Amino acid sequence: GKSVITLDDLSVPQIQELLHKAQYIDSHRKEVAHTCDGRVLATLFYEPSTRTRLSFETAMLRLGGKVIGFAGAQLSSVTKGESISDTLKTVSNYVDVVAIRHPKEGAALVAADAAGVPVINAGDGGHMHPTQTLADLATLQSRFGRVNNLTIGLCGDLTFGRTVHSLIETLCRFGNVRFILISPKELKTPQYVINRIKATPSCSYEEVTDLSSVIGDLDALYMTRVQKERFFNEDDYLRLRDTYILDEAKLRKAKPTMAVLHPLPRVNEIAVEVDNDPRAAYFEQVKNGMLMRMALESSVLGDQLAGYEEKEITL
Ligand code: CP
Q1: Does residue 8 sit in helix, strand or coil?
Q2: What is the pLDDT of residue 186?
Q3: Residue from 77, 127, 67 nearest 99 by CA
Q4: 18 Cβ neighbours under 8 A, 6+ residues apart
Q5: 101 is in an annotated binding site
Q6: What is the pLDDT of residue 312?
Q7: For ligand 1, atom 4: residue with the closest CA
Q8: Cα of 191 vs its chain's centroid, Å
Q9: CATH value of 7-129+289-301 in 3.30.1340.30, 3.40.50.2300, 3.40.50.1370, 3.30.2350.10
Q10: DSSP helix, strand, coil percent of the chain (3-state; round to 5)
Q11: Residue 48 annotated in ligand binding
């Protein structure tokens, strides 16, 4: 097994294989229920989470494995000053795979370097969130039958929104995506992510500040929360947090087939009335997140899904 710190750690065929596996898992829940019998997952979450931690854990439980870990480091020896490396050297003795979330960029890589078992990045600061991207890709795939040849708007906090960085990075590898980057000038996409698009001849991007004037062009709109926890200054957060609020009035200008994605949690940026619109895809993303984590955990461990014909692209 190997660690997954960014989706660059997987080839495009490996990502496509995970998409296939997740579909198989969804329709063969009973058959796959013993895939990871005897395995143990550790979830080491140094930062709040609802979906990511619970879906990593549910995924392992539904595959027949077991779970240990901490949610918030307050009750662990991190409070006594233990380093990430020492924590991982310890936990590696107990488990077969680790999922780690940490507020510092690069923490998952430090963890993987120290660990003796595969480490999966469950979000490292404002940097990357690769398993969210797997959920996003599965959702695009189910809505459009493809993840590229699309015009995708990404809207909100493009500076600190790690899900956006992982998604752009990965979509560039699939190619043929037109990105419309919608943010206030204070929350623009970081240069390292822009460089990724620039290095991909089949992809293009525009940076704009107004959602209404571009919404009609979009196949998918990826809304994001303004990441309060990454701001240095509360006044800046309060000034920027409600810049974009997607409601039914704004959606009237959008294509009837447009998909609205959001990694969640949301605060104000999507009005609750949108939840009943057939274009709302964000709770499908939640379900896809669990299925993709089942596919990833079993693959990282080299555990075969009963009845599934494995390809020669093991992780
Ligand atoms: N999408 C996501 O990462 O949600 P949580 O922060 O609740 O895990």
Answers
A1: helix
A2: 93
A3: 67
A4: 10, 134, 292, 295, 296, 299
A5: yes
A6: 67
A7: 51
A8: 20
A9: 3.40.50.1370
A10: 45, 15, 40
A11: no
123 alpha carbon – ligand 1 mean position (Å): 9
CA 39 to chain centre: 24
Active site residues: 51-52, 80, 101, 129
For residue 143, say whether it is annotated as part of any ligand binding site. no
Domains 7-129+289-301 and 130-285 share a fold: yes
**Residue 51 in contact with ligand 1 by CB distance below 6 A:** yes
In whole angstroms, give the CA distance from residue 14 to residue 311: 9
| Cα-to-centroid distance, 266 and ligand 1 (Å) | 10
Distance 122 CA to ligand 1 centre (A): 9
Closest CA to 95 of 119, 79, 74: 119
Average pLDDT of adjacent 10-residue blocks, the chain of 315 residues: 94 97 98 98 97 98 98 88 96 98 97 98 95 98 98 96 96 98 96 98 98 98 92 87 94 98 96 98 98 98 95 72
Q: Is the CB of 161 under 6 A from ligand 1?
A: no
pTM of the model: 0.96
Question: Can you say whether the dihedral through the CA atoms of 207, 268, 58, 83 is positive or negative?
Answer: positive
Topology of 130-285 in CATH? Answer: Rossmann fold (3.40.50)
Question: Could you give the residue ranges of the DSSP H alpha helices within the chain?
Answer: 12-27, 51-62, 84-91, 107-114, 130-144, 162-174, 191-198, 234-240, 248-251, 282-301
Domain range list for the chain: 7-129+289-301, 130-285
Distance of CA 34 to the CA centre of its chain: 26
14 has binding-site annotation: no
**Residue located via tokens 């990871």:** 36
Q: What is the CA radius of gyration of the chain?
A: 19
pLDDT score recorded for residue 254: 98
263 Cβ closer than 6 Å to some ligand 1 atom: yes
Return the ligand 1 atom nearest residue 52 CA. 8
